[in-house]
From TrEMBL, chain A:
Family the UniProt entry places it in: Belongs to the bacterial ring-hydroxylating dioxygenase beta subunit family.
Entry keyword Translocase: no
A Pfam family reported for this protein in Swiss-Prot or TrEMBL: Ring_hydroxyl_B
Superkingdom field: Bacteria
SUPFAM superfamilies, sorted: NTF2-like
Keyword Oxidoreductase: yes
EC number: 1.14.12.19
Record key words, sorted: Dioxygenase, Oxidoreductase
GO terms of molecular function: 3-phenylpropionate dioxygenase activity
Enzyme class: oxidoreductase
Name used for this protein in its record: 3-phenylpropionate/cinnamic acid dioxygenase subunit beta
From TrEMBL, chain B:
InterPro entries in the cross-refs: ARHD_Rieske_2Fe_2S (IPR015881), RHO_NdoB-like_C (IPR043266), Rieske_2Fe-2S (IPR017941), Rieske_2Fe-2S_sf (IPR036922), Ring_hydroxy_dOase_asu_C_dom (IPR015879), Rng_hydr_dOase-A (IPR001663)
Similarity section: Belongs to the bacterial ring-hydroxylating dioxygenase alpha subunit family.
PANTHER family given in the database record: 3-PHENYLPROPIONATE_CINNAMIC ACID DIOXYGENASE SUBUNIT ALPHA, CHOLINE MONOOXYGENASE, CHLOROPLASTIC
Residues spanning the signal sequence: none
This protein's UniProt keywords: 2Fe-2S, Aromatic hydrocarbons catabolism, Dioxygenase, Iron, Iron-sulfur, Metal-binding, NAD, Oxidoreductase
UniProt-recorded name of the protein: 3-phenylpropionate/cinnamic acid dioxygenase subunit alpha
PROSITE patterns for the chain: RIESKE, RING_HYDROXYL_ALPHA
Gene3D superfamilies from the UniProt entry: Naphthalene 1,2-dioxygenase Alpha Subunit, Chain A, domain 1, Rieske [2Fe-2S] iron-sulphur domain
Domain Rieske as annotated: residue spans: 46-122
Length: 183, 455
């Protein structure tokens, strides 16, 4: 009994080893490269079957207001998707008639502030990161999406799969016409 | 309240000929015309400000805009709803910075002027600095709008004391509106939160797209339809049994097959839910309306609210200058739905008509380019074509409004711009023509209509 309790205290939230941190940081960079190059087939391979991908809408509220905007899954969200739902969205790009994607949007994902922690599950890791996603299309269309992510990644053999992602975009009014991007 | 405007009064009728079916492109980018729209349309119309479910309890409030005027919508202790300018009468600062919340007071950050939820001035920082006679508290509250109305949960407000009642403003459109607001006992509610985005396009492009443009759907949204419906293209349109209906600038385009929009939502459980309640819907609203609901359809309430019955996106196009609007998106559901169906609807809406939705992504791009390209000094003088289906007007026993056959049509768009023109050219609200003469008259409840409206 005491062993379990001690194990929980020492595991959950503990910083991962240098080696694990490096491996997961590289995983995030690889993911960003796949998204930049619209290599969605390989990106989908990085997503676990039980994925939950969530980007909540953020209202401006006073500090005293305790409405839970980030974790309440019944509220409006840009994304609140399972893997099959992400694949459904992606299938639009394979139709050949996604007119607003041709000419292609030019993307750069910059991923920083990576921290890796252990969780209660030996094969799952909590990964914090910040993103700066830049988009440019046609002549002058450009916008910047900036925010934080909290992920759970699961080790599968020598690779990792994304199990949970919560991406918190800092916009209240999203300063863009659409969100043709994964973060 | 009278909204005075001194300045040029151009002849707006030269910007369109709706009998011929063309529009002048300048109405989509001209700064003077836009400014005049804010006075003559937004300051005089009934404007959607909230769904009552967003502010259920005393002290609940949300902030929004009527035209470009910032307003607070607040639930009062007696259950009524007040709408007031979000601007302190002292120096004009905003008194509320949150999108929504609950409060007893709105307090200005500048000098601490404090107002209750009705907008009445209750006190301020260092009140002793005012001598007797300096300030009359009763006359220095937050300016309330002229009228507030509630139609089956949708709260509207107007700055115009001469505006007709909300029921008269919506008129025969209530017969259609009841298909989303009253298709099941208990009425509707909004899902929590609001997604807002910015599109660099004229606000009218959003409204006219939803009021009647079924035509774009099969082409613009081919990729969206296929992604949501297992690779299948947009549902086929039956030009014999689909319609446009226009009433004083409000419009609804629709089929009568009952399932098209529900298919595009891509959530089989939601389809099952509506199929289950459809017999009751027929008892409630009549056979015809139960067949229209869920069909390929879209609608707009004049001047700047739109929705998709069946897909359940509800949205407002807030003007932010001639070449930009803010799109506010909500999800509207029946209160009686079980939680899992509400969740299915919400997910479906965000996967189709959220900013990352498979349909939404292709729309904004089109409207932005329609707006910016139309601005060219030569291009702006070229007319735009709005003649589709111009000869297909019919009389229909059941359907109220100016009705055209075939939902691939520009009829509702012409009806919208006719109302736009009526409002831009008539100083007196009461002198604007009814288009068409209403059938419902003073009927308070479209469920109780005489046989004429039941198929």
């Amino acid at each position: 009994m005491t062993d379990t309790a001690t194990l929980k205290r020492t595991r959950e939230g503990t910083a991962a080893s240098l080696e694990l941190t490096h491996a997961l940081t590289q995983t995030l960079y690889r993911e960003a490269r796949l998204l930049d190059t619209e290599n969605y087939a390989d990106w989908a391979e990085m997503l676990a079957e039980d994925l939950h991908y969530h980007m909540p809408g953020i209202e401006t509220r006073y500090r005293r207001d305790k409405t839970e905007q980030v974790t309440d899954l019944t509220r409006m969200a840009y994304y609140n998707d399972s893997k099959p739902e992400i694949l459904k969205r992606l299938s639009r790009l394979e139709t050949g008639t996604a007119w607003s994607e041709d000419p292609a949007t030019r993307y750069t994902h910059i991923i920083t502030n990576v921290e890796v922690e252990l969780t209660e599950k030996a094969d799952e890791f909590r990964v914090y990161s910040n993103f700066y996603a830049y988009r440019n299309r046609n002549e002058r269309d450009e916008d910047s999406l900036v925010g934080n992510r909290i992920d759970i990644w699961r080790q599968v053999g020598h690779a990792f799969q994304l199990v949970k992602r919560r991406a918190i975009l800092k916009h209240n009014v999203m300063l863009s016409k659409n969100l043709n991007i994964y973060i | 309240m009278r909204i005075e405007r001194i300045g040029r009064e151009p002849d707006y009728s030269r910007y369109m000929d709706l009998k011929e079916g063309w529009l002048d492109r300048r109405i989509f980018s001209d700064a003077d015309i836009y400014e005049e729209e804010l006075y003559r349309i937004f300051a005089r119309s009934w404007l959607f400000v909230a769904h009552e479910s967003q502010i259920p309890s005393s002290g609940d409030f949300l902030t929004t805009h009527m035209g470009e005027d910032a307003v607070i919508v607040a639930r009062q202790p007696d259950g009524s709803i007040r709408v007031m300018l979000n601007s302190c009468p002292h120096r004009g600062n905003k008194v509320c910075f949150a999108d929504a919340g609950n409060t007893r007071r709105f307090v200005c950050n500048y000098h601490g002027w404090a107002f209750d939820t009705a907008g009445d001035l209750k006190g301020m920082h260092e009140e002793y600095c005012y001598d007797a006679g300096d300030i009359d508290f009763k006359n220095h509250g937050l300016k309330n709008v002229a009228k507030v109305g509630n139609y089956k949960g949708l709260v509207f407000a107007t700055f115009n004391s001469d505006a007709p009642s909300l029921e008269a403003w919506l008129g025969d459109f209530r017969w259609y509106l009841d298909m989303i607001l009253d298709n099941e006992e208990g009425g509707t509610e909004f899902i929590g939160g609001c997604i807002k985005s910015v599109i660099s396009a004229n606000w009218k492009f959003g409204v006219e797209n939803f009021i009647g443009d079924a035509y774009h759907a099969g082409w613009t949204h081919d990729s969206g339809a296929r992604s949501m419906n297992n690779g299948q293209p947009f549902p086929p349109i039956d030009m014999q049994n689909s319609y446009h209906a226009s009433m004083n600038g409000h419009g609804w385009e629709f089929g009568t097959e009952g399932v098209g929009d529900l298919v595009l939502l891509g959530r089989p459980k939601v389809m099952d839910y509506y199929n289950k309640i459809r017999p009751k819907m027929a008892e409630r609203l009549g056979e015809m309306r139960s067949k229209i609901f869920g069909s390929v359809a879209s609608a707009s309430i004049f001047p700047n609210v739109s929705f998709l019955p069946g897909i359940s996106t509800f949205r407002q196009w807030q003007p932010k200058g001639p070449m930009q609007f803010e799109l506010k998106t909500w999800v509207i559901v029946n209160k009686a739905m079980p939680d899992d169906i509400k969740e299915e609807v919400t997910k479906g809406v965000m996967q189709t008509f959220g900013p990352g939705g498979t349909f939404e992504m292709d729309d904004g791009e089109n409207w932005e380019n329609c707006t910016t390209v139309n601005r060219g000094v030569v291009t702006r003088h070229e007319r735009l074509h709005y003649r589709c289906g111009i000869g297909r007007e019919i009389e229909h026993d059941t359907l109220p409004g100016i009705v055209y056959r075939g939902q691939y049509n520009d009829a509702n768009q012409r009806g919208f711009y006719q109302r736009w023109l009526d409002m831009m050219t008539h100083d007196e609200f009461g002198k604007m023509p009814a288009r068409p003469e209403p059938r419902l008259g003073n009927v308070a409840e479209t469920r109780d209509l005489p046989g004429l409206f039941a198929l």
